[in-house]
Amino acid sequence: MKSLFQFVRPLFERMDPEKAHSLTIEAVKQFGSKKIPQDDPRLSVSLCGLNFPNPIGLAAGFDKNAEIPDAMLGFGFGFVEVGTVTPLAQKGNAKPRLFRLPLDQAVINRFGFNNDGHEAMLKRLLAREHLPGIIGVNVGANKDSTDRVSDYVKGIRAFAKHASYFTVNISSPNTPGLRTMQNRDVLDDLLAWTIHERDETSRTSKKRPLFLKIAPDLSLQELDDVVEIARKRGIDGLIVSNTTIKRPRSLHEKRNRLESGGLSGKPLYPLSTKMLSEAYIRVENAFPLIGVGGIDSARTAIGKIEAGASLIQFYTSLVYHGPKLIDEIKRGLLERLEKDGLSSPLDLVGRAVPDWQNWPLDTFT
Fold it and tell me: I need a surface site. Which of 60, 75, 115, 299 has the fewest CB within 10 A?
């Protein structure tokens, strides 16, 4: 399947991006292997009661409806996050809503949580519940919901027995007003209710870790507030970060860079990694961090870990590099562990945090 990607990639590059993605999902359904490869034991990471065979995860957004989680594990991911899923199915924003920036190895999207809803995803997860592998569920709120906190609670309740972990996604820029849920008082209320529901459902099933996914566009004062509330409420992990509404001055693509939506891919790396390092300082090991944004090589994956991430995720780089990137990162991690005489990727966590302290945020506009 990995070699097939290299063969069809030139064809997909000439297609509408969203159509190409849909065809990729169908191809993986047909040809992807559900057999999980064996990893070198040195890559394993145990966090939050979960044993990850390696620290490399598929970020939410690729498999919105849990159609191919096991096939993605078959490519070698250590865990897969599906969603974002909302209580009711919704079409999302008008098309076109996905734009490639090939010169920058980036993508801009303004999907708006298009997904099949809780009921459809639940059926798919029920159908694979006997299979191994860590599958996280990223939950969100419907665009027209009058009670968004309730939508998140419904997500926890719906998947309590079927998710390996939950991610509360309040950082997508493509649902109007969603990012205001990162504000101090709203976030406090949201985490209180979602953690309460998680704890209630754990009376009849295993307790699932609950992660919070934040935007890279927070000010440092806003990040202070988010971390303070997250620590007070006792979340299990923080995902840093979602896409950015900012645009770095260094972008080469002149046309698509003007599209509204969230920017992901290589140009996001400095901003997301800077915010990761700032979060690491503030969290003080109260819970682990998951680093997302711009990972496209073993070097950038290791850099994300050294900036504070215990686990990493990517999605956009699959568009430009394909699934072979997973094995490249694993090889690079093992080489680094051998070189430094370390026994686990966790031994690298936070080593380069001081190096990010002087990175200027004003390179994004």
Answer: 299
Q: What angle do CA 320, 321, 327 make, to 5 degrees?
A: 160
Instruction: Please confirm, yes or no, whether 317 is among the known catalytic residues.
Output: no
* Annotated catalytic residue within 145, 172, 272, 277: 172
Interhelix angle 117-127/148-158, nearest 10 degrees: 20
- Cβ neighbours of residue 204 under 8 Å, at least 6 residues apart? 161
Distance of alpha carbon 107 from alpha carbon 8, whole angstroms? 19
Cβ contact 261:306 at 8 Å: no
pLDDT in tens, 270-318: 999 999 999 999 999 999 999 999 999 999 999 999 999 999 999 999 9
Banded pLDDT at 34 (limits 50, 70, 90): confident
Query: Dihedral sign, CA of 269, 271, 274, 276?
Result: negative
Question: Buried b / exposed e across 294-325, counting CB within 10 Å, b at 16+?
Answer: bbbbbebbbbbbbbbbbbbbbbbbbbbbbbeb
